[in-house]
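ok, trying the design again with the full structure, not the truncated one.
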């Protein structure tokens, strides 16, 4: 198996560095520091120590017995990233990058966020490790994620509202990159997903692979064999990449689930792989939503964490080579899955995670009783209460 990325930071046709000249030096500095850190046993020991003592890892692998009984078919297991400190998988990567920033002598970090979980994770590690933190966030996401904005401010971060475009993650990322270009000498850009120029997609994947590594050990301990199918939601794709990467050489079928919004037959979706085409976004060649002139089109999803017009370049490669199957789930299907998990298992998932749940719930009844499904529950739904009340209050 060829190891990706290659020396140019590419995953087959995708990835690379499409950035202004001023960022080539900082990216080279970052790549050299990352290579040295990941080869240093002391750095890795500290990273795993903080994951255990501060983040609460390993997270649980839970058998969803009532849900399995309700749906019939395959046995359903959940990887509980919602139990991570701060409530989502985002903290795994934020801890790794914050330790790297300190190792590089950087005392200021910048971040962008959509659903707010990466912003909260960044503000959290900044507080823990004594770093200054600026978080860029679209004004629409600030409206949808008011609680997370307060959490970031309480943790001591400065939250910068971005009003351009739709006021969502794409626009926050644009602004964060502009700020970094002007301040790259003393700021570390803490990217929250497997997107951006090399080495970011590789770095975030390697800090998130703890999800898949733990899952493999836990599943073998319980079932004595690997799951038949593994599901994870994809926006930028960090939780999915972290879950899938350790399984790429195994027999488990891997399924990434993106946001179909109001339907992929409408303009209001964020189904980057289902409906997008190759192009460059935020410093990387990948699949993205664009018009015939190459202009990025605005994505839509009920989930603030999935309405991003691009996807990580390694996902684009896995899609092109058919190593991973990608499906799309609508807002309505995700909300129905969220309600079902909540009322059968007593777990309120993030709306992002509900997209993966919905696709798994479609397939489980068609599988045999001796087959197994693993779903990555990437985060908890506390942050989505305002959105859920808006859409579900009359139904509960």
């Amino acid at each position: 198996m060829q190891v990706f990325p290659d020396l140019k930071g590419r995953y087959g046709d995708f990835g690379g560095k499409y950035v202004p000249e001023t960022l080539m030096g900082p990216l080279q500095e970052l790549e050299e520091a990352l290579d040295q850190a990941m080869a240093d046993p002391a750095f890795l020991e500290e990273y795993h120590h903080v994951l255990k003592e501060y983040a609460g890892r390993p997270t649980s692998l839970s058998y969803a017995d009532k849900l399995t009984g309700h749906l019939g078919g395959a046995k359903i297991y959940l990887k509980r990233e919602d139990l991570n400190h701060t409530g989502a998988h985002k903290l795994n990567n934020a801890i790794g990058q914050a330790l790297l920033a300190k190792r590089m002598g950087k005392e200021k970090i910048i971040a962008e966020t959509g659903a707010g979980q990466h912003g909260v994770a960044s503000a959290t590690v900044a507080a823990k490790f004594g770093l200054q933190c600026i978080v860029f966030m679209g004004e629409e996401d600030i409206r949808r994620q008011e609680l997370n904005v307060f959490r970031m401010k309480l943790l001591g971060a400065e939250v910068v509202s971005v009003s351009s475009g739709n006021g969502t993650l794409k626009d926050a990322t644009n602004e964060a990159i502009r700020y970094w270009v002007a301040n790259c000498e003393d700021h570390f850009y803490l990217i929250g997903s497997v997107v951006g120029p090399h080495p970011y997609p590789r770095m975030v994947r390697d800090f998130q692979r703890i999800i898949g590594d733990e899952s493999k050990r836990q599943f073998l301990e319980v079932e004595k064999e690997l799951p038949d199918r593994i599901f994870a939601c994809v926006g930028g794709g960090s939780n999915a990449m972290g879950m899938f990467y350790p399984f790429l050489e195994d027999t488990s079928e891997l399924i990434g689930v993106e946001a179909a919004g109001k339907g992929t037959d409408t303009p209001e979706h964020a189904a980057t792989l289902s409906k997008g085409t190759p192009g460059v976004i935020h410093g990387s060649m990948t699949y993205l939503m664009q018009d015939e002139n190459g202009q990025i089109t605005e994505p839509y999803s009920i989930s603030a964490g999935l309405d991003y017009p691009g996807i990580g370049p390694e996902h684009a490669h896995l899609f092109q080579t058919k190593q991973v199957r990608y499906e799309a789930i609508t807002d309505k299907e995700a909300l129905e899955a969220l309600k079902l998990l909540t009322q059968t298992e007593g777990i309120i998932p993030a709306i992002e995670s509900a997209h993966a749940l919905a696709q798994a719930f479609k397939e489980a009844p068609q599988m045999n009783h001796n087959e197994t499904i693993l779903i990555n529950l990437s985060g908890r739904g506390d942050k989505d209460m305002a959105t859920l009340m808006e859409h579900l209050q009359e139904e509960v």
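Keeping the full-length input from now on. The mean pLDDT is 95.
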